[in-house]
Each structure stands twice: as structure tokens, then as C-alpha cells.
Amino acid sequence: MKILILNGPNLNTLGKREPEVYGTHTLSDLERMLEKSFPEDSFEFLQSNEEGKLVSRLNQCLDDPIDGVVFNPGAYTHYSYALRDAVSMLKIPVVEVHLSNLHSRESFRTKSVIAGVCAGQISGFGMFSYILGVEAVKNRKNQKD
Ligand code: DQA
Questions:
Q1: Buried/exposed code over 62-74 (b: 16+ C-beta within 10 A; e: otherwise)
Q2: Helix crossing, 51-60 with 81-88: angle to 10°?
Q3: How many angstroms does the Cα of residue 114 sit away from the middle of ligand 1?
Q4: CA 145 / ligand 1 centre spacing (Å)
Q5: 22 noted as active-site residue
Q6: In tens digits, what is the pLDDT along the chain, a chain of 145 residues?
Q7: Which single residue of 9, 63, 130, 140 could bond 93 by disulfide (Cβ 3.0 to 4.6 Å)?
Q8: What atom in ligand 1 is closest to the CA of residue 10?
Q9: Is residue 83 in contact with ligand 1, taking CB distance under 6 Å?
């Protein structure tokens, strides 16, 4: 299965950014961990701080042979209708993931404008959220086959 791991703004700073909230592992640690955990799958990794780049990559999934997306939209989670629309038009499963528990933080983080058009949302398990996200994509894909 080919899975896109898409990360939004500020996730390039993992390891340095508020380690008490986001942990001490880097984005590259996270990507290597996924490759090790799912040797039978192939991954494409993309991180961008720009909303338009994330929209364009999701748009490409209309034509690419990608089976599913694990998406951490970062702060765009809370207000990007452009990303919501880009997810909404896809037929493949998109699972929204977050390192931190959105519901134990500031109230503005409890709302996701994207989760409603995703297969589901996983939040609060650190890097393990991405493992659960990949498992969820694979499970959803198999149900459709
Ligand atoms: C985050 C949570 C968001 O609220 C925040 O803006 C992020 C990271 C997470 O993974 O916990 O950038 O998506």
C-alpha cells in the first residue's frame, strides 16, 4: 500500500519545539519509525509550512496511485476550509492525526474544521498517533476492497 504522510506548519521543528508537548523526537525520527513499523508499505513524506502546498499535494491524490493519507494539518486544523475542501473531494481514506491531545489544551484547539471530512481523527498519542493513523488507513482501505 502507498501511503502519504502529510505534515503541516511547524512540524519541521519537532524535537526542538515545546518538547514537553510534542516530545523530543524529530520529524525524521518519526518518518524512520513508520518505515520500520510498516516494512510492507511504501511511504511518501511531505511537510510544508504553506497551506497552498498542502492543498496542491492533496489535489494530486485525485490522479496519483496513493491509497491513503495520514494528515497532521498543524494549526491549519482549526481554521483551514481550503484544506477541508481538498480532503473532502478525495475518495481515498484520509486520517487526521495529532501528537498532542487537542482536548486537553487551549479551547481553540478542540475544534477541527477538517476532521469531519476525514475517515477519523487520532489525537494525543505522540508519534504513536501516526502508527494508529496508518493502521486506520489500512483498515479502511481493506474494508472498501
Ligand atoms: C498539532 C496540534 C495543533 O493544535 C498545533 O497547532 C500543531 C500540532 C499536534 O500534532 O498536536 O501544530 O497538530
A1: eeeebbbbbbbbb
A2: 10
A3: 13
A4: 32
A5: yes
A6: 999 999 999 999 999 999 999 999 999 999 999 999 999 999 999 999 999 999 999 999 999 999 999 999 999 999 999 999 999 999 999 999 999 999 999 999 999 999 999 999 999 999 999 999 999 999 987 665 4
A7: 140
A8: 12
A9: no
Q: Whose CA is nearest to atom 7 of ligand 1?
A: 74
Q: How far apart are the first and last CA of the chain?
A: 12
Q: Provide the residue type at 145 as one letter.
A: D
Q: pTM, whole model, 2 decimals?
A: 0.96
Q: CB–CB of 94/136 below 8 Å?
A: no
Q: What are the chain's domains?
A: 2-144 (3.40.50.9100)
C-alpha cell of 2? 502507498
